[in-house]
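G., the chain you wanted modeled:
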Amino acid sequence: QKQIEKLFAKYHHQSRMLAQQKVTQKLIQNGFDQQHFQPLIKAYLADFDQDEQQAAEWENLDREAQKLADRYSQYTGWDFTRRFKTALYRRGFDGDLINQWLSKNNK
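Predicted structure as tokens:
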């Protein structure tokens, strides 16, 4: 349980899905059986308030989106949107959140 908490603290800047994948991968590398730690991960994630999780996910998305918007600023229109969305999908963010960020920031 403590190791799960440490790993989630380490990956707190990642999207929730990507953090969960990395924690699972790290625990498997350390020799833990997936049947034993998977319920612990679900219990750990269930302890968080839904609003708190969404706020953290939005903050992480906003930080990553700002970086990517700067990186892809030389592109415009559809080319920018395609590259931007692809990069955020790769980082594990939800498509609805990405579209919401794009509409909010008029990109």
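The mean pLDDT is 91.

Shout if anything looks off.
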